[in-house]
Amino acid sequence: MSADTQTLDEAAVSAYLEKNLPGFEGPLEVSKFQTGQSNPTFLLKTPAHNYVLRRKPPGVLLKSAHAVDREFRVQKALADTDVPVAKMHLLCEDDDVIGSMFYIMDHVPGRNFNEPAMPDVSPADRGAIIDEMGRVLAALHDVDIDAVGLSDYGPPGNYFERQVGRWTKQYKASETQNIPAMNELMERLVAERPEDDGQRTLVHGDYRLDNMIFDAKTTDCRAVLDWELSTIGHPFADLAAVIMQWQLPAGTEGRGMGGLDRAALGLPTDEAFVAQYCERRGLPGIDNFGYYLGFCFFRMAGIIQGVLKRGLDGNASNPERAMKLGEFVPVFAQHGLDALNRG
């Protein structure tokens, strides 16, 4: 295990911020968030203000992964939109400061829910929080990418063709065992891809409840976090990612809604959430939603395979959790095939 992912050179960070961040005054107190498998994330406390530092992990990395510079850019661009994000302060591209690129943003206080069941929340508030999640998602996909300067944030062309190609390469680069279901899923996602309908929006790439901060007292979202996988692409990928998460087992491990009595808990059905999304965006409905769902299971399998590989190589942010997550790769692959079969 590399200690570099767990610790931070506090003196180097403090000196850099004193020189580059207006209003910064130490002393600095640093602690690491245990969430965030990909880019190590630290809370920086000062007497007057709290910040968050997100860095690339050290070591040899997969090409295009851990793009903290893209995270910084997209959140900065969204500052004056209906999508709530933390305030961005600095991007440091000089690896010599702490050993890898990093950025500084405001720390956003509030509530973070690790699972949709939200055990300590009332049924009415649960429903309102999930509705707010849907509102923010629709707002994200309605952002005018030209107006906010993000029209070049992703390449042109068919998003699903591009993404299936990218994640197939990344999966194969980090493959540790032969998984027949994953092989079949990759082949079918190429063969069964729908015609491009022309939708081209900003997409988050990992839109989940646990990547959102909500107000401490209300059901308003204060910030969407973890933009590493964001790009210009197809909005149905984000929507399907939400539904994908909900189909997983309930609890802190699966973080889904599998087996829950949603009505009793105040939680919507998949169909109701999708219908509300379509209404907010003025869409008539979505054909072949199973493809988008299958794609999301495939991509998540690819992501956790990468986490597993970093765990085996000794440079994961949380090595023990990396190994546990790796057990789910075949499960996600089978879920993807099941979604394609349902159509």
TrEMBL record:
Transmembrane segments: none annotated. SUPFAM superfamilies: Protein kinase-like (PK-like) (SSF56112). Gene3D superfamilies: 3.90.1200.10, Phosphorylase Kinase, domain 1. GO terms for molecular function: transferase activity. Residues 30-254 form the Aminoglycoside phosphotransferase domain. Keywords: Transferase. It holds the Pfam family APH. It comes from the Bacteria. This is Phosphotransferase. It comes from Sulfitobacter sediminilitoris. The lineage of its organism: Bacteria, Pseudomonadati, Pseudomonadota, Alphaproteobacteria, Rhodobacterales.
